[in-house]
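lol so apparently i was supposed to do this last week
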Amino acid sequence: MGYSIHTYSPERNSPTGQIADREFTGAYDDPASVRAFARSVDALTFEFENVPSMAAEIGEGEGAIVRPAGAILYAAQNRLREKSMLSKAGLPTTTYRGVSSLSDLREAVQCVGLPAILKTAAFGYDGKGQSRIADDRGLEGAWDALGGQPCVLEAEVNFEKELSLVVARGEAGDFAAYPLVENRHVNHILDFTVAPAEVQPEVCAEAESLARQLCEFLGLIGVVCIEFFLLSSMREGGKGGRLLINEIAPRPHNSGHWTIEGAVTSQFEQQLRTVCGLRVGSTEQLRSAAMVNLLGELWLRGEPDWKELLSFADAKLHLYGKGKARPGRKMGHITVTAATAAAALEAGLAARSALQRS
Ligand code: AMP
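anyway here it is w/ adenosine monophosphate bound
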């Protein structure tokens, strides 16, 4: 689109660095280095939440446009802040309590109930920093496993499906949502996404309305993904609705990668559009799609044989250029588009299995 891209991260030759016009390397908490980077750009965004919000504040201080705003990054990078922000916005979340000691945990269990999931408040993603507590005997073990850091205790939700919605909001308040998608996780890590989700239209309308409410509450400009638990029946308390928000990510999300092939405008183009003050593009879906993740395990016996995968005529391979493959690390993904979402998923899973056999 004619923009020049600068990127900043602690590693050299990072995935974005490999394609950016200029790669800056430095610690996220090195103010001088972040300042030099911020001075080199007109607009700034981030593509994961664990960038200290101080970096965004420095960008704002240097006069760069920062989208989404640093305050939104600050809220999203800590589960407790995120949940209290969602509650303030009147949005439905799991029942939760903040916990900062073993005795807090004992009290929290009284109100949240068991089974529950204890999660570190900061720096958790893909199931890192989580411990399930089945009964009272598990309290101490869970607390020790997470290293005594500030945590959130959440009621375990017996969900019917996990869904997510990626939306974009421009500076003029223009807003567009992609179709709601279904996500399946293995070991708390996203395994695949099917677009669109097979759910009733009311559920899609509910998700979109909650997303709009969130964006307007935050005055968000950018792309945000909202992850939901779909309950099998309406929530208690007469509030209606079948969705609870699990978490939000104010950036393009793994469950939106299918939009590269499957939608008129990809989530990455939306990020660029919103950050640069352009109107949001069309979120219309062109074809049903499935996205299947490729994790580091696939590299156990060396580089997979990509020819096996690419013998599937509809499979599109995306490799992120991450240096080292580690189990559980997201190294890339496959997208398949097809006449139906079920057919796309079947082909995507078959393509990945072909790689596993290679
Ligand atoms: P998170 O990092 O919070 O998104 O958690 C990763 C995955 O763990 C979710 O996508 C769910 O599959 C599962 N999970 C997390 N929290 C809960 C919960 N409160 N109840 C049931 N499953 C959960």
